[in-house]
Amino acid sequence: MADANREIILLEVGWNEILTKGLNPLVHILEGGFETNTKLFNNREYVDIYTICYNMCTQRSPYNWSEQLYQRHGSFIEDYLRDQVVPCLKQRHDQFLLQELVKRGENHKIMNKWLFKFFQYLDRFYVKYHSLPLLEMAGVRKFKELVFDVIKADVCNAILALINQERDGAVIDRGLIKKCIELFESMGMGTLDVYSADLEAHLLNATREYYARKATAWIQDDSTPTYLIKTETAIDEERTRVSNYLHPETEQKLIRVLEEEVLEKREMELLEKEHSGCRALLTNDMYEDLSRMYRLFTRIPDGLAPISDIFRQHIVALGNEKIEQKLVRMEQADKKKEEGNDDPQFIKDLLSIHEKYVTLVNSQFSGNALFQKSLKDAFAEIVNRDIGKVKIAELMSSFCDRILKSGSPEKLSESEIEEFLEKTVTLFSYLTDKDIFADYYRNQLAKRLLNQRIASDDMERVMIGKLKLRCGAQFTSRLEGMLNDLSIGADNAKKFEDYCKSNEAKLGLGKLEFTVQVLTIGHWPTYKALDINIPPIMQRSVQIFKEFYEQETTHRRLQWSYSLGNATVKGVFNKRSFELQVTTVQAVVLVAFNGDSGVRKFSELQESTNMTEDTLKRVLHSLSMGKFKVLLKSSEVDSSSSTTATADAKNVKVTDVFTFNDQFTSQHRKFRIPMSSLDDSHNTKRVDEDRTVAIDAAIVRIMKARKTLSHTQLVAEVLAQLAFFRPDGKVVKKQIESLIDREYLERDAENPNTYKYLA
To answer: CATH second-level architecture of 684-757?
Structure first.
């Protein structure tokens, strides 16, 4: 409560005393300069001024000067700022302006602090009661309105100039800029509105202009790797700049502006540079530069799409280059009349390319899904390309056959074989028509098994397991069945051997060794049926096994396939004995030459063996025109004209005559006489039949579950279910019509494009 006996202080008297004791000395100190942490007023001086203000605010009306003191507090600050601070700042420019601003800002904080102390009672009661701005806040507002708003544009320009100087390599006073930035932030009085509008927006525009100029210069003078190094350096420097003196919220905006100007707007120009663009980096294996390119373009929206597209095109180009080389080799093989389906180098080249770029995707491109898809699309395009009569699926299968069969020229360990198989199966996964590979592989596996050229039974099962993992049990069921047949066949062979030994006298086979491999028709490829006349000793052997097998089982019927058999025939040439490893059909023809003359016409041989013309030509070609010429071929003499037909040095004719070559000799006592296969390694008709069955099964399976479907939906679901090949929509439609004819389906009476399942 105010003291009734206290002397009344008049407004002007009190104010003059406050000016004399406090405010004017404060201004004098601030203008004259002082050392930091110096106490400007001692306790007695401060208490005197505070007491005057207190008394003036607690006097009874009409001598309560609270309102007047509040107004004069503001007027004093305004006069000081307008008359002394602003003129001084307007005389400064550039860095000196910033230095003066920082000094004036610090001074204003000190003034505000002491004014708050002097007029503290006013702030605690009058201001709160009338909901007026607190004295300290009012002081900040005065500084913003009278000083900051007047010179902020010049200050902003000075700050931006220093930042650009630093970007160009100059050393600047970062502490000074930081203090200026803090001043901008404080002018927002709790928000970043002033900082964002009056500095950050201009900073972003200036940054855009700066890096637009830089990008133009870099793109003209530098290679793509150098450009990207400079870009990465610039990003790091901008981050450092933010941490040193800018507000943290500016970092993302600042970096985004840089990315837009330097990366986003220049991307295609950078990627397509002739000698240093993305394709050049891939070609020259510049992995570090590729990593940097990936890191930088990951930062911009859709920045990786153009790189991944170039990546795909690059791989396709490499694959096509290898294919062109393969086509040249095929053309050369055709001229020499050699087979072109065994080209391990071509598959090794594709495997090498695939391994290289899988590693690149995982390391340089961080396993990014976009690049994995590009890699997949590229190899799908390569391995499904039509390269003429030899399909890439066949080359893959032949490569597997080469490394899996015994006597392979590759000379690989089991771990190396498994590694190659894994890589090949990965390549196989890109094939659209996997069933074509399966058909080739099944035929070649059958030859390895039947010719006893399996290098490792474990590796065969490993390969089947890899295919099963990717395509399911249905895909490998026949392959597994073939291996199982061989396992069961070993037991049957042992039983038959014991049977022959126990009935040796009765059977009368003598020294003939005879084994039979029983195969399940559904597992193995379809082989050409040969109805040939075999020699009596072979007929006897066949009959003996038939009797034995009928004792073992009664529910299976034997069908003999002579085209798959092998035999070892003893031949005596010029009194030297040799062992000839031949096929069964070769053995049948050789036995026909037993006799006095050892001369047989083609027609005689055809009649005695009952072989077709094509089969007999192949057999005789292998025996008379191969590496081991155990028969001699000559032309037949025309008795009516006494002339001799001209012999064909390359082919067998029906008019040729064949003679046992008694003068034949060889360095090897035991040798194999190779012969071209009587069965095709791939039968397109057989594959088409299998596909028809698969399409029918898929249609029935879908319709049984769905009962009713439109044509479009049914075709789409069929295509989705058929994982081993991609049939043409017309083929699916044809099979739908076939199933309607067979009464598995029917058309909806009201909508012909809708099908119903008939249970």
So the answer is: Orthogonal Bundle (1.10)
